[in-house]
Amino acid sequence: MKITFYGQNSLAIAVGDTNIIVDPFITGNDLAKDKVDIMTLKADYILLTHAHQDHILDAEAIAKNTGAVIVSNYEIAMHYQEKGFEVHPMNHGGSWDFDFGNVKYVNAIHTSSFPDGSYGGQPGGFVIQANQKNIYIAGDTALTMDMKLIPLRTKLDLAILPIGDNFTMGIDDAIIASDFVACNKVLGVHYDTFGFIKIDHEVAKQKFSEAKKDLLLLAIGESIDL
Ligand code: NI
Ligand code: MN
Questions:
Q1: Which residues 6+ apart lie within 8 Å of 133 measured at CB?
Q2: CA–CA distance, 198 with 166 (Å, rounded to integer)
Q3: Which protein residues have their CB within 5 A of the ion that is ligand 1?
Q4: 157 CA from centroid of ligand 1 (Å)
Q5: Å from CA of 202 to ligand 2 middle
Q6: 136 with 156: CB under 8 angstroms?
Q7: Cα(68)–Cα(81) distance, rounded to whole angstroms?
Q8: Which long-range contacts (CB under 8 A, 24 or more apart) does 147-152 make?
Q9: How large is the C-alpha radius of gyration of the chain?
Q10: Residue 50 CA, ligand 1 centroid: distance in Å
Q11: What is the pTM of this model?
């Protein structure tokens, strides 16, 4: 599994020949828009955690360009199905065996309106099990006890957690979240994109290392292999 960071909660996940894009927000992100051309992104699936602008902005353009299937909660899936896109609707606690692996839509504490204010269902995260690797994409969320449910079923290799505070967990809660999901390897996301969520990288890494955990902060376009 190869994971590439494109800013905010935007990720590309390659599992063998299958390409998955998560929460594409690139053309609206000053940190990413000159570094990533969304028309070059490959996608068989686009996973959307919730309907906020900073998670869905480029989903339609990428789906149009690639024919990717949009996977999200029922309301978001229906929103895109009505527009003619191929979708796979899910809801909390449900999992599905896709051709690349298993995806479970899990709880998040947040909100989920579309940019025009229309209802975007309830927000979520994803647990992906593919090629003997297991990852958790928390999406935008507060620290929640529901995270403790994940390790009951899945031994994670990587937890992708928001760390920018204000709209989601900050660093201190993300460290606790890492305990809740029983995974000490954390990829930090949802920081620095705009003023409310700017963080000090060194302080963040220091706090994780004091808790005997690894915080990975990738540059835009940088990848890790699991
Ligand atoms: Ni959000
Ligand atoms: Mn967000």
A1: 1, 157, 158, 226
A2: 10
A3: 52, 140
A4: 24
A5: 22
A6: yes
A7: 12
A8: 147/177, 147/180, 147/181, 148/180, 148/181, 149/106, 149/107, 150/106, 150/180, 150/181, 150/182, 151/180, 151/181, 151/182, 151/183
A9: 16
A10: 7
A11: 0.98
Ligand 1 center–CA 81 separation, angstroms: 21
- What is the rounded distance in angstroms from the CA atom of residue 138 to the CA atom of residue 36? 23
71, two tokens: 């996977």
Give 65-95 pLDDT, tens digit per residue: 999 999 999 999 999 999 999 999 999 999 9
Say whether 73 sits in a helix, a strand or coil.
strand
**Residue 195, token pair as written in the block:** 């003023």
Q: How far, in Å, CA of 223 to CA of 24, rounded?
A: 16
* Ligand whose nearest atom lies closest to the CA of 111: 1
The Å distance, Cα 120 to ligand 1 centre, comes to: 11
Condensed to tens digits (0 to 9), the pLDDT of residues 97-144 reads 999 999 999 999 999 999 999 999 999 999 999 999 999 999 999 999
